[in-house]
Amino acid sequence: MSGAFTKSTARNIFYGGSVFFLLMLIALTFDTMGTLPERDHRENITEQVAMGKKVWEDNNCIGCHTLMGEGAYFAPELANVYDRFGKSKEAIMGFIMSRPAEGVPGRRSMPQFNLSQEELEAVAEFLKWVSEIDDENWPPNIQG
Ligand code: HEC
């Protein structure tokens, strides 16, 4: 059957493939846009969660940490820190508050941010909200 692969076969594969994958892209885009509102529980974004996100951004937490794998790999993943800390916002706030001003001698550690009580509560609430996003249980283990 040599010679069966003609120019028009190649063209049909090219156009057919392009159309197929374009349709696939459109279908998956609609699927994502349809399911996102359920998965990110956006109805629970309160003023406090929004403020927590601002604290998160203003202090560049992502410069050291990851959220669901996105960010820097210097410090632990925080999308599940709320679960890791026994579903306790107080534990998260306590950790952030208790960072030594001079750092931990001998190693690079998390700085002291001197956040106000309001900012602490907001960032903990933000991390709680993030932990409740339906992210197919990512990261797959509690350590992050
Ligand atoms: C300069 C890098 C750096 C920045 C910026 C940073 N962290 Fe951290 N963070 C760390 C390191 C390193 C650890 C691991 C514990 C340690 O060594 O102090 C940590 C640990 C944590 C933990 C405990 C995680 C665990 O599983 O033990 C929480 C919660 C946390 N950081 C929250 C924050 C928040 C919120 C911000 C922004 C306000 C922030 N971090 C900014 C470096 C950073």
Task: Report what the structure shows.
This protein is an all-alpha fold and 144 residues long. The protein has two domains: 1-39; 42-144, Orthogonal Bundle (Cytochrome Bc1 Complex, Chain D, domain 2), CATH 1.10.760.10. The protein contains five helices and two strands; from the N terminus they run ααββααα. A two-stranded antiparallel sheet has the order 1-2. Strand 1 (66-67) and strand 2 form a beta hairpin. The termini are far apart. 18% of the residues are buried.
Summary?
The chain is mainly α and 144 residues long. The protein is built from 5 helices and 2 strands, in the order ααββααα. The chain is elongated and about 75 Å long.
Strand order of the main beta sheet, please? 1-2
In the CATH hierarchy, the architecture of the largest domain is Orthogonal Bundle
Low-confidence stretches: none
Report the portion of residues in β strands.
Answer: under 5%
Annotation, overall tally of beta strands? 2
SS class:
mainly alpha
**In which range does the helix fraction lie?**
40-55%
Ligand species: heme C
Average pLDDT works out at 94
**Strand count, sense and closure of the main sheet?**
2 strands, antiparallel
Helix/strand order, N-terminal first: HHEEHHH
CATH superfamily of the largest domain: Cytochrome c-like domain
CATH level 3 topology of the largest domain = Cytochrome Bc1 Complex, Chain D, domain 2
Give the class-level CATH name of the largest domain: Mainly Alpha
The backbone outline, from C-alpha atoms, is elongated
Q: Give the distance, in angstroms, between the N- and C-terminal Cα atoms.
A: 56 Å
Number of helical segments with 4 or more residues: 5
